[in-house]
């Protein structure tokens, strides 16, 4: 038995493959990876925290690394794009604020652990690389639009993304103080002003 | 038996408390923490990697957290100060380059794991906080000297440290490309120019 809903389903999806059960399992996985690390968390405890039978976890994700990778991807989608309101400063401040909120969740903390380059399996590392690449692409795209409009001189948009998100990661991971919107504004203001002052306009 | 040198020592320091043995044990600890996490590494393997008897590890560090904390502190001293050559840009570029090199060692990777705020014990967390505080103090001191000399407008030096070292942590931890001196120069140039452009001089 997995759960009541799934076992009564006419579509015969064994192991509770409903979106609800899957979501609960992935959230529990992120929570336990954040606490115990990718090598340390236990399937039994995932099932317990998610409130499902452990066969639901084993059947849907026989591969431990696939489970971690999906849990990370679940969280990544929220930060895969940046709004374009026409106001570059505002869009970047909104993005950094959302990034800080995302990093401060079990998903974000699990991602932080998985970033450590020497430790993880290729499945997890590829997933992390894909998530970070999506975020990098989102920043690059927004910055390139700004450059095309003449809001910003032409600049290596990958590097600009690192300058903006690096301090956010550091402040959130360190956990000494909360990251505020004022922090996001200061970061964006200093970086944009620094680029305008050091890079010649086209 | 612990090791030949220590057991023949007239000072009777049991357990190989010589600087050499201690150094080897701490280096091995950092290496294994970087690979297996703080909860995951094994004393037996520390002894094996260090080339000492395992009683040397147990006797000197009966407390696992103390062992991790000392291993982290071993690495911290190199980055606890910044030179003052009178050239702020150069001193900061040198520091960020040294920081990147330090983060890319087993010690730095172990520190990166220990930074994750939700996971570790109070001994390890206090040590991490102390290391980061020392580094923050080093940057603050050098920046405050620059402000006093009029090289930089008055600015929150803690925040400046986060703006400078955040991208270094991100690039090194991500591990997609090597961190170069050119990266350090671009970071310092953008941040210093951004501060000069946004903060009024005294």
UniProtKB/TrEMBL annotation, chains A, B:
It comes from the Bacteria. InterPro entries: Homeodomain-like_sf (IPR009057), HTH-type_TetR-like_transc_reg (IPR050109), HTH_TetR (IPR001647), Tet_transcr_reg_TetR-rel_C_sf (IPR036271), TetR_C (IPR011075). Gene3D superfamilies: Homeodomain-like, Tetracycline Repressor, domain 2. One of its GO terms (molecular function) is transcription cis-regulatory region binding. Residues 19-79 form the HTH tetR-type domain. Residues 42-61 bind DNA. Keywords: DNA-binding, Transcription, Transcription regulation. The keyword Amino-acid biosynthesis does not apply. Pfam families: TetR_C_11, TetR_N. This is Putative HTH-type transcriptional regulator. It comes from Mycolicibacterium vanbaalenii (Mycobacterium vanbaalenii).
